[in-house]
Amino acid sequence: MKVHEVLRGTGKNCNRQVDGLTAQVMNDHYAAISTDSHYRAPHSKHTARERADNFITEMEVFRILDTLRPTATGLDAIPAWFLRLGAPVFAASIAQLFNQSISNGVVPRQWKTAIITPVP
User: Fold this and answer.
1) Domain presence at residue 119
2) In principle, which of 9, 33, 54, 55 could form an S-S bond with 99, CB 3.0–4.6 Å?
3) Could you give the CA distance from residue 103 to residue 99 in angstroms, rounded to a whole number?
């Protein structure tokens, strides 16, 4: 089965896992069939951190999630108790998202949304 058949779901058994199909194999495949000869990878923004030791660690995210106080839920409607309980599972993925945002120098638009209610 060819890579493009797996990705399009046109192969004989399109739902099966294909041995040897990795992100690098897919990247090489798409790089080989690219028609844009002038493509250049985007540059990191000047404000992006360049050293890995300045990034957010999984343990830092775990500690923050584990010590959340019970407050009203945010826009995601996820209660604090759920984040505390799932901290061991969520910490690595959340740290990766934060670090990707830092290295790209871009904050996702969804992270900039808030509902602010004035309290008299």
Assistant:
1) no
2) 55
3) 6
Q: In the predicted model, what is the mean pLDDT of residues 93-118?
A: 82
In the chain, what's the furthest Cα-to-Cα distance? 65
Q: What is the pTM of this model?
A: 0.50
Residue 120 CA neighbour count, 13 Å, CB half: 0
For 2-18, b/e burial (b = at least 16 CB within 10 A) is ebeebeeeebeeeeeee
Would you say residue 107 lies in a domain? yes
CB atoms within 10 A of CB 83: 17
Q: Are residues 63 and 11 in the same domain?
A: no
Domain extent for 56? 52-112
Nearest-angstrom CA–CA distance, 61 and 86: 12
Q: Is the pLDDT of residue 118 over 90?
A: no
Residues 55, 49: contact at Cβ < 8 Å? Answer: yes
Q: Could you tell me the two tokens for 105? A: 């120098």
